Amino acid sequence: MEPKEFGNITADQLREYMRLHGEEDYLLVDVRKPHEYEKGHIPGAYLLPVGELSARLSELPLDRDIIFY
Questions:
Q1: DSSP 14-64
Q2: What is the pLDDT of residue 7?
Q3: What is the pTM of this model?
């Protein structure tokens, strides 16, 4: 499946997107290291460190928007 869109958004744009969409519509993926995630993350975010991303892509859903941060 090809991505619908790819680009950058601001924190304000993300907040607006999250306000307008239900959690079932998207997956928020935190690509930082586990110790950074543990210090604080956006509620509901899924931890997938950038170094593991290519090996774990199959874990990501194809039926929702995916937002990486």
A1: HHHHHHHS-GGGEEEEE-S-HHHHHH---TTPEE--GGGTGGGGGGS-SSS
A2: 86
A3: 0.83
Residue with tokens 């928007």: 65
Cβ atoms of 31 and 67 within 8 Å: the answer is no
Is 26-68 a CATH 3.40.250.10 domain? yes
Domain ranges, ordered by start, for the chain: 26-68
Cβ atoms 67, 26 nearer than 8 A: yes
pLDDT tens digits for range 13-68: 999 999 999 889 999 999 999 999 999 999 999 999 999 999 999 999 999 999 99
